[in-house]
Amino acid sequence: MIDKDVHSHHISQQFNAELDTIKTHMLEMGGLVERQVRDAIAALIEGDSESAETVKVNDAKINSMELSIDKECTNILARRQPAASDLRLIIAISKAVIDLERIGDEAGKIATQAIQLSESGESPRGYKEIRHIGNHVGFMVRDALDAFARFDVDMALAVAKEDKLVDEEYGSAVRSIITFMMEDPRSISQMINVIWALRSLERIGDHARNIAEHVIYLVKGRDVRHFGIKEMTAEVQDK
């Protein structure tokens, strides 16, 4: 077990600063990604194509941040040759930024569906489900980032557990929409846009879980990516 202060005790203050900087940059990227998800959902529900276009434009900034942080991690690996918990921190950050970039991509896809729906007219169904699942995965992303900032494995485990609920909510929403499409074939085009938006939200939940798993790896030193919830719980509770 390690805590959030373990990386600040090196003899080299410069090394301390470098580790703190890459973690800060990753969390700043996470803040932007979190906002992208929120803005994309709002743009879709409100039919705001201008806001949706802004989300798509901002995706380039997220991509740039991923490349920059990846370069920082590579430079530290090359110069410092870190070991043990320091190495795990760098690996966890490098993996987390990949998931953050992919969450940004999914937000961009939701923005695309928002633009298409605003052009074709308001969808007759599905916005309630998008709002509900969108709020759910938004909290997951926020909590996964908080868990990383605090090295909090209990919070990370809670995020992983939430992903199963999101999967269930997504499946229920899609079944309901398909039933509606069968009853009203005129709605099919718009409903497909809604289903794609819901799919992106479900994928955002998956990436939030991935970030939570990186936190557990960072703190406990155990790769839990292919663990079920029971196995993951046992790993977190093992002191």
Runs with pLDDT <50, length 5+? Answer: none
- Characterize the biggest β-sheet: none
Straight-line distance between termini: 7 Å
Structural class: mainly alpha
Number of strands: 0
The outline comes out as globular
Number of helices: 7
What topology emerges from the helices and strands here?
Blueprint lengths: L12 H34 L2 H32 L3 H37 L6 H24 L2 H31 L4 H33 L8 H9 L2
Summarize this structure briefly:
The chain has about 240 residues and is an all-alpha fold.
Structural summary, described in words:
The protein has 239 residues and is mainly α. The chain has seven helices and no strands. The mean pLDDT is 91.
Keywords for this entry:
239 residues; 7 helices; 0% strand
